[in-house]
Automatic annotation (TrEMBL):
It comes from Victivallis vadensis. GO terms for biological process: citrulline biosynthetic process; L-arginine biosynthetic process via ornithine. This is Ornithine carbamoyltransferase. Residues 150-297 form the Aspartate/ornithine carbamoyltransferase Asp/Orn-binding domain. GO terms for cellular component: cytoplasm. It catalyses: carbamoyl phosphate + L-ornithine = L-citrulline + phosphate + H(+).
C-alpha cells in the first residue's frame, strides 16, 4: 500500500527516527556511496509557487537517488485550465512513480493523494510544510543530539502559518516544548494545541523567550498574503527575533529560519548574520538530505 507525506500526522516516531538515520547517512556519505533507489523512476515536481530551496533540493535529490525529476509548472498544466485534480492524479499515476507538489490549497493536495496510486509528497501548502520541519528537526538533532521534551522551541510571528502549524505537529510527535509567540489576531489554531500540554501560545515575546533553545521565525508576508501586507507588518512588528530575546534564552540558543529572510523585519540583521547563533544555512542544506530520505522510503 502506497504511503504519502502530506503532514507530520502521516509519520510515527519510528518513521521519524528512520528518516533521520537515513538522512544523516546520505549527508555523511554524499558523493561517496552508490545509493540509487530511484533508478529507472520518474518523479513529477508540480509547482504553483515560486521557489529556490524547494525546487533545487528536490531536483538535485531525485537525481542523486538515480531518478529523473520532471518539473511541472502548475499554471501551464491543464489542471490550471479547469481539469479536475482527480483526473490529473489518475493520469500522472500512469506516467510517474511519485509526485512532489508545492501549491496553495492543502485540500487540493489531499485530493491529489487520495486519487493517485503513487506516493504524493507535500513540498508546501498554505497550511503545512512538512519537509521543511523535518529538515529543522534534523538540524536540531545535529546541534543538540536529540529532539525530545528537553528541547524548547519558540516560534515568532504568524501563529497560523504553515511553519507554525507544522512545528506544532512536530511537537506533538516528539514531545519537544513549543511556544508560539503571536498577536491575538493570528494566534495558533486551538485544535493543534488541544491535548498537548507541551504546546502553548504566549502573546508576550519576552516571556516566550525564557529558556529557549531554538528561536524560529518566518517572513511576515507570505505568498498569497500580499494584499494584507500593511496590516501584517504592523501587528507582527513586536515579534521580531532580535538580540533582546536572546538575552532571555539559554546561553547557547540558536536561530532557525526557513528562508528567504528579510533582515530588519522578522529578524534583526545582527541575529541573522551571527555565526554563533544563526544556523539557517545548515538548516537549508538539510532540506536536501531529509527529502532524499523521505523519497527513498516512500517511492518504491
Amino acid at each position: 500500500m502506497k504511503k504519502d507525506l502530506l503532514t507530520l500526522r502521516d509519520l510515527t516516531l519510528d518513521d521519524l527516527h528512520g528518516i533521520f538515520e537515513l538522512a544523516a547517512k546520505l549527508k555523511a556519505e554524499r558523493n561517496k556511496m552508490n545509493y540509487t533507489p530511484l533508478a529507472g523512476k520518474s518523479v513529477g515536481l508540480i509547482f504553483a509557487k515560486s521557489s529556490t530551496r524547494t525546487r533545487v533540493s528536490f531536483e538535485v535529490g531525485v537525481g542523486e537517488l538515480g531518478g529523473r525529476p520532471l518539473y511541472l509548472d502548475q499554471s501551464r498544466m491543464q489542471v490550471g485550465r479547469g481539469e479536475t485534480v482527480a483526473d490529473t492524479a489518475k493520469v500522472l499515476s500512469r506516467y510517474l512513480h511519485g509526485i512532489v507538489i508545492r501549491t496553495f490549497s492543502h485540500a487540493d493536495v489531499e485530493e491529489l493523494a487520495r486519487e493517485a496510486s503513487i506516493p504524493v509528497i507535500n513540498a508546501l501548502t498554505d497550511e503545512y510544510h512538512p519537509c521543511q520541519i523535518l529538515a529543522d528537526m534534523l538540524t536540531i538533532k545535529e546541534y543538540s543530539g536529540r529532539v525530545d521534551k528537553s528541547i524548547r522551541v519558540a516560534f515568532y510571528g504568524d501563529g497560523r502559518s504553515n511553519i507554525a502549524n507544522s512545528l506544532m505537529l512536530a511537537a506533538r510527535l516528539t514531545g519537544m516544548e513549543m511556544v508560539v509567540s503571536a498577536p491575538a489576531e493570528e494566534r495558533p489554531a486551538e485544535e493543534l494545541m488541544a491535548g498537548a500540554p507541551n504546546i502553548c501560545w504566549e502573546p508576550d515575546p519576552l516571556k516566550a523567550a525564557e529558556g529557549v533553545d531554538y528561536f524560529y521565525t518566518d517572513v511576515w508576508v507570505s505568498m498569497g498574503f500580499e494584499d494584507e501586507k500593511e496590516r501584517r507588518m504592523k501587528i507582527f512588528r513586536p515579534y521580531q527575533v532580535n538580540e533582546a530575546l536572546f538575552e532571555r534564552a539559554r546561553p547557547n540558543a540558536k536561530f532557525l529560519h526557513c528562508l528567504p529572510a528579510h533582515r530588519g523585519e522578522e529578524v534583526s540583521a545582527g541575529v541573522m548574520d551571527d555565526p554563533k547563533r544563526s544556523i539557517v544555512f545548515d538548516e537549508a542544506e538539510n532540506r536536501l538530505h531529509v527529502q532524499k530520505a523521505v523519497m527513498a522510503r516512500l517511492i518504491k
